[in-house]
Amino acid sequence: MRWLDSALQTWRFRLARPWIPSGSRVLDIGAHQGQFLRTLGGRIRASVGLDPLAAPHTADRFRVVPERFGVPAPFTDGSFDAVVMLATLEHIREKEGLATECHRLLRRGGRVIVTVPSPQVDHILSVLTALRLVDGMSLEEHHGFTPDETPRLFREAGFELEHYRTFQLGLNHLFVFRRGGSAAAPRASSRGKVSAFAGGTEFVKRGYHRAG
User: Fold this and answer.
1) Which residues 6+ apart lie within 8 Å of 24 measured at CB?
2) pTM of this prediction exceeds 0.90
């Protein structure tokens, strides 16, 4: 990862971090090598990062697993206090059921924290990649998803938009969605799923198959 990639990543982390309450169990989808979870330090417990390109490893309070997020996910209802997707949603081609599954995985009042770049960013990153100022971060996986599609995606799953702002000169967008107290979204059955954790941060992979 080049210096500019790291700087942009740190900017996203700084905006997302205040929305993670102390003591939270976090699911980071598209976690890279667990950098965001690591910055949260002692404010999280029993958290999981998923990324198909990650090297598997376990830290004191989280574990990174080299897997894609699949629907249904192998976690029981209400396993997490926050689901994080930083510069990830635009890479997920099959979004059907994604927000509904996030609703199931979150406790009541839990949050989904999402950053989504504007389409113009693809052109800028292409130039910066050609100049070898950034690595591109899987730019080829972007598929035209626009930030204004994000609220509908999560609203239809029973979330309320709690916070929205632009950053990085208006080229990036932060959304924070809150899961309400009622089960407004259709709930997938948790039958056959396993607890995310056993004995602290241990991730139970039984029955978990790589998606895609």
Assistant:
1) 43, 44, 45, 47, 80, 81, 82
2) no
